[in-house]
Design brief:
With 446 residues, this protein is of the alpha/beta class. Helices cover 41% and strands 13% of the residues. The protein contains 14 helices and eleven strands. It has a seven-stranded mixed beta sheet, with helices on both faces. Helix 5 crosses helix 6, helix 11 packs parallel to helix 14 and helix 12 packs across helix 14. The longest helix has 22 residues. The protein starts with a helix and ends with a helix.
Length: 446
């Protein structure tokens, strides 16, 4: 878990940072090492009450450890503690953030998008929906029933009407139903989910764009979870086509704190048309006095934002550029391959009922049983038993009809089925698939 070489690199970087301030009069805040040591030691003890998120045997929620370079750069910046709301609070980190936005935009085929980092995907999606509402006041926002629940909630916050579209048996937006809804009118934007957080399903973006153009409707891509997979080389043909179409949407949200190897919180919102910055226009008589240049506080709903997030992301981008067939993209391919290997292992056995083959790196599977109620009870038992063996999974409730579409012999005596869910988002998971599967198969036998 702890590589002490990281601490050595941090110490050397702090010495370099300190050189930039050597001309100031000497000043050191007071610190009682003994008292502070006791407090920090207690913090370390309390922090042990966590799941082992860093370890390959953690395959539960979307928790991916930051890259060591991101950790070091983030920690280094805390000795400055920059605020990227205005240039007065973070000149260097603001410049780094602008470079980060450029790299993220280029990843999606955009040369000069308007955008900035946020505290996470929720705030990023809020801004995208806010702009959508300003462009089409009073018109509906449409997302699938498998889209993140925050879209409906954010529409309530913004006072925008919301409509949900059903999904197919693989969890993707039903484009036929979408077409019928668009024909009714009063729709301003469609949210396409590029990797649902439940099962990793990717909405068929080319068809959604075709329908949206026919009805003069904007398209927002919620790629908070799946966006980085645009760099992967192992996507199937349909999924590849959807990611390739991202350059045609109006706005994109991606979370570097998911597959981008960043600490929490680091989300990002991007707009293809930079002129939407007019909606953010405001002034502050005390914040913006040091520079006449456009700065991040003028294109963000958030005010104070940690410059540390930009510093960490920039450092990681320098080490692992966003290149097809590069080191970073190979990490994503390892995650994809881990999920496919795991799904194949479960499908070849007789203890579990896997759902659709994974598009990204999430695998959902029921425990084999005669009835949906029994399958759900067994899933909860396996979940608890696996944790006692050090393997941490997640649970998800799916409509019984969706499970039976893949496994019709399962008798539905409940409306939903509790299934197991494994997020294999660490590249190291590829080497641990056999061990994870073996633990599960042994548990299911008992």
């Amino acid at each position: 878990m702890i590589n002490h070489r990281e601490l050595e690199l941090l110490k050397a970087a702090l010495d370099t940072l300190a050189e930039g301030y050597r001309e100031l009069p000497d000043f050191s805040p007071e610190l009682d090492p003994e008292t502070a040591g006791r407090v920090i030691d207690e913090v370390a003890r309390r922090m042990r009450d966590n799941y082992p998120y860093h370890h390959p045997l953690y395959a539960g929620q979307m928790l991916k450890p930051p890259h060591p370079v991101a950790r070091i750069a983030y920690a280094l910046s805390l000795w400055v503690n920059p605020n990227n709301h205005a240039l007065d609070g973070g000149r260097a980190s603001s410049a780094l953030e602008i470079e980060c936005i450029g790299a993220l935009g280029q990843m999606f085929g955009w040369r000069a998008p308007l955008g900035h980092l946020t505290g996470g995907g929720t705030m990023a999606n809020l801004e995208a929906l806010w702009v959508a509402g300003r462009l089409h006041p009073g018109k509906r926002i449409v997302a699938s029933t498998e889209a993140h629940y925050t879209h409906r909630r954010l529409c309530e916050v913004l006072g925008l009407p919301f409509a949900a579209v059903g999904t197919d048996s693989d969890g993707r937006m039903d484009v036929g139903e979408l077409g019928r809804l668009l024909a009714e009118g009063n729709v301003g934007s469609v949210v396409a989910t590029m990797g649902t957080t439940g099962s990793g399903a990717v909405d068929r973006l080319p068809r959604i764009l075709e329908l949206a153009r026919a009805h003069d409707v904007r398209v927002h891509a919620d790629a908070a979870y799946g966006g980085y997979f645009t760099l992967a080389s192992l996507l199937d043909a349909e999924t590849r086509a959807s990611f390739d179409a991202l350059s045609e949407v109006d706005s994109i949200v991606v979370d570097p704190h998911k597959h981008g190897l960043q600490p929490y919180g680091c989300g990002c919102v991007l707009f293809r048309d930079p002129t939407v910055g007019r909606f953010y226009r405001h002034d502050s008589p005390y914040t913006y006095f040091s520079s006449a240049e456009l700065h991040l506080g003028e294109i963000s709903l958030e005010c104070s934002r940690p410059g540390a997030a930009a510093v960490a992301l920039w450092a990681t981008q320098q080490l692992l550029p966003y290149e097809r067939d590069g080191a970073f993209s190979r990490m994503l391919d390892d995650c994809l391959q881990a999920a496919r290997d795991f799904h194949a292992r479960l499908e070849g056995g007789d203890r579990f009922l896997p759902m659709s083959a994974p598009e990204l790196d999430i695998v959902v599977y029921a425990v084999r049983a005669d009835r949906t109620s029994t399958a759900g009870n067994l899933a909860r038992r396996v979940f608890d038993a696996a944790a006692s063996e050090g393997l941490h999974l997640a649970l998800i409730d799916l409509p019984a009809d969706r499970v039976r579409a893949r496994h019709p012999d399962l008798v539905a005596d409940t409306e939903t089925v509790t299934c197991l869910r494994s997020v294999l988002m660490k590249p190291e998971h590829r080497d641990w698939v056999e061990r994870i599967a073996a633990i599960l198969e042994n548990l299911a036998l008992n």
